[in-house]
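Example (one chain per record):
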Amino acid sequence: MATDVQVPALGESITEGTLAQWLKQPGDKVAADEPIASLETDKVTVEVPAPAAGVLTEQLVKEGDTVAVGALIARIGEAGEAAASVPAQDAASASAQAAAGATTNPPGAGETPALRGDEHAPEVGDEDHITTLSPAVRRAVLEYHVDPSKIRGTGKDGRLTKDDVLAAAQAQKTGEVARAPQPEPEVRASAPAPQKAVSAPATGDRHEERIKMSRLRQTIARRLKEAQNTAAMLTTFNDVDMSAVIDARARYKDLFEKKHGIRLGFMGFFVKACALAAKDVPSVNASIEGEEIVYRDYLDVSIAVSAPKGLVVPVIRNADRMSFAEIEKTIADYGKRAKEGTLGIEDMQGGTFTISNGGVFGSLLSTPIINPPQSAVLGMHRIEERPVVKEGQIVARPMMYLALSYDHRLIDGREAVTFLVRVKEAIEDPTRLLIDL
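Predicted structure:
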């Protein structure tokens, strides 16, 4: 008897997602609770587990389709059912695709090397490898004429990624260039002599790829534009001498790691400094809801983290009550899970204030955008030695620019500047963090 596979609950306020990838194909054996598909939501990617053991007999939706919570997406049956149901599904799918192609695509549109009969296209024996790949990876395999069975995947569970295919294509191309001499460029008798031009026509292989925006990227785009359209955003700047924090880390990093099992980073100092500053300027940690201002006696800090599919902002809850070690451990855990794609929706819900560290990518200065419904975001940047005047002398100091973007509807300029000055004072004299000054 077949078992239905439905889209699981995806979290508060999330009603649908996109089927990003089938992890199992019709005919594959599956164990109970084994992931058979991955769903991409507005915030995270989640895996759909098999509700029972058996054989995947039907895939009822295609990769890229939007599915609602509770929707039926597949069926799992016994081994004997697979042979009957898989061909029927393949036939129906092929028929639907052929009909769609006949009505929506002009002749030759959307062809791949395999469909054109390209002599370099993967052979029929490679079909099993290609059909199990994600759409983006499959397109890259066909476009660059590489054998997916000979590429070592670096993705989750050894799956191929687009970068794996591009690296293999580059290696293949390098080998071909080394083996064969390059032909002389063709010269036509009627061609005019070369002349300097402002814009010359491009030569060589040129490729374009169109990939549908992920739900996460669409959500990021929508929310950032919403922030620009709704909030009266303004950014104020300051710079901070990082000498004291750098000295403290150098002096205590070994003892800190030995005791707590985690490295002492810069972010812990800034989280603590923001918690201290928010006590003096509570509007930075507040938000506007309708015609009311909501003030909070707690600080939930959203930390911007770069993930393979885009920026995510997991939340350090009650950051104002945490120790340096607790903050650093939480940040390290979020960073690891962001790279693995295992962050949960609950990890990113809420947040009353955001810290974004563009300095890790080399940013010197930026104007960060507020993460609604929050009212402020602190931007950190790279540390570099610059000449500054100290006690009448020009000296080199490790300096960092700080940027505070804020909603001017709620936060006055004086409050924003005061908050940033409090952060600067705490970083330049970390003793203030200990005595709550």
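Caption: The CA atoms of residues 357 and 380 lie 5 Å apart.
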